[in-house]
Amino acid sequence: IQLRTNHVPLQAYLVRVEKVPSAVCPTCGEAPETARHFLLSCPTYSLHRAVHFRPLGFSGRTPATLLNSKDALRPLFAYVNATGRLRSAVGALIGPHYPDSDDDD
Predict the structure, then answer these.
(1) Using CA of residue 94, residue 79, residue 42, residue 87, what is the dihedral sign?
(2) Which pLDDT tens digit goes with each residue over 57-69?
């Protein structure tokens, strides 16, 4: 939910609540660090995106898919954990558990 609303401890939010002086991304210095920047465009995390968002395909790499699709939750949580960017504020994210449909036998 926090990533959807941009109420996540990234620079753009922290500058709004007067916790930091600048919204500029601390890892790349190229743009304000919004949820969209962190998830989709920060060059620092390009390898993490390639690895963790690969199962979603190219069309799945959109804010709408990443933040709203049940299928994107595991790759999204894996990405956030792999970057370590939010670990000090929110800890490690534990992915959702969905019962396997084969367990009904």
Answers:
(1) positive
(2) 987 889 989 989 9
pLDDT in tens, 77-98: 899 999 998 876 665 556 555 5
Is 15 in contact with 21 (CB distance < 8 Å)?
A: yes
Structure tokens at 63: 């804010």
**Considering the entire predicted model, what is its pTM?**
0.80
Q: What is the DSSP string of 6-66?
A: T-SSSHHHHHHTTSSS--B-TTT-SSB--HHIIIII-GGGHHHHHHHSGGGTGGG-SHHHH
Angstrom distance (rounded) from CA 7 to CA 34: 9
Residue 24 φ then ψ, to 5°: -65, 135
Instruction: Count the Cβ atoms, other than its own, within 10 Å of residue 105.
Output: 4
Do 26 and 33 form a contact (C-beta atoms < 8 A)? yes
Q: What 3-state DSSP class applies to 88?
A: helix
